[in-house]
Amino acid sequence: MIAAGELVVLVALGYLLLRAREASHANLRLENAERGYKKWVNGFATGLGDRPAVVILEPDALAGLSSCPDNAQRQARLQMLSYAVKTLQTKNDQVYLDAGHSKWVSAGQMASRLRAADVARAYGFALNVANFYATDREISYATVVDRNLGMAKRFVVDTSRNGQGTAAPGRVHLGVGSISRALPGAGHGALASRLFTDPQSEAANWVRAHPGDPLTHEIRRRIASQPTARWFGAWSGNIAAAVSGYESAASRHHKVPVLVAYDIPQLGCRSKSAAGARQWCNPPGRRLGSVPQVLDTHGDMGLWIKAPGESDGNCGVGAGTRMGQFSPVIATKLINGSHK
């Protein structure tokens, strides 16, 4: 006959075995995810080759770190980002590690995350990707991030859709107490004028397909003629070939491409901006920001990282569209700043 005490022991033992098995599977998933991500990053690096490029690395990955369910996932994400920085940053390429935006994570906390992801090895960090916050606000945030980092890193701001309230070029003030940003080679503002304008962008393709549309002229002039980033996410095919093909196209025009690398495993992390969907998903009343350009004397740039006119999804003024689809309606509203 089994005593009551022995039953308790058997139940406890079974529970511990189950937890051990679950932990083992979780560790295996982490290891497989890290291995797969490293393979993808290596393929991306191979595609870049020795040609120059600007790379915006993993939008939302650091800002959404707190959404990871436990410390193991958070550490795994940081390690993967660190690996990507070390692999993609070369003497030819400029890697900007994404740092969310000024209304998501405090500057001190973001500096800590950037440091843990090896931003010291990167060219800098990126702000406001696919969002709408004014350039001067993001520059002020970047200055405080730098102060908390204890180093002057260059940064880029996505100006593609932040025209409402954006300070005029040349009138941006960094605020009292900004740290010195003297860096080797700072102020080489020629890069912005050398960026690649993709002749096969969604906007350019739409313009060619609709020569008689009354919206075509303004979309061609205001959007399709400007350099925007090309996003490379979860590719089922050969990521090296995909990146290399785009790099080669830019090289033939003697231009520098802007590429967005985003394929970090979620591992249960579901990042959402604290701003809420209504504020980021095709909201009305938004306007094109300043065209890609150098923002200051230090070489910090405003880039069009989210291509204007490409939908955030079936929401807001993009009702009836899918994510990434070019919409002439959205594009025109960005040009006009329409609230309807």
Could you describe the 3D structure shown?
The protein has 340 residues and is of the alpha/beta class. It has one domain (30-200, 227-308): 1, 4-beta cellobiohydrolase (TIM Barrel, Alpha-Beta Barrel). It is built from nine helices and eight strands. It has helices spanning 4-48, 71-88, 107-116, 135-149, 202-209, 216-224, 239-252, 277-280, 328-336; strands at 53-57, 93-98, 124-127, 154-158, 230-232, 258-261, 293-294, 301-303. It has an eight-stranded mixed beta sheet, with helices on one face. The longest helix has 45 residues, at 4-48. Residues 165-189 have low confidence and may be disordered.
What's the SSE blueprint?
Elements lengths: L3 H45 L4 E5 L13 H18 L4 E6 L8 H10 L7 E4 L7 H15 L4 E5 L43 H8 L6 H9 L5 E3 L6 H14 L5 E4 L15 H4 L12 E2 L6 E3 L24 H9 L4
Parallel strand pairs: 1-2, 1-6, 2-3, 3-4, 4-8, 5-6
Antiparallel strand pairs: 7-8
Helix pairs in contact: 1-2, 1-7, 3-4, 5-6, 6-9
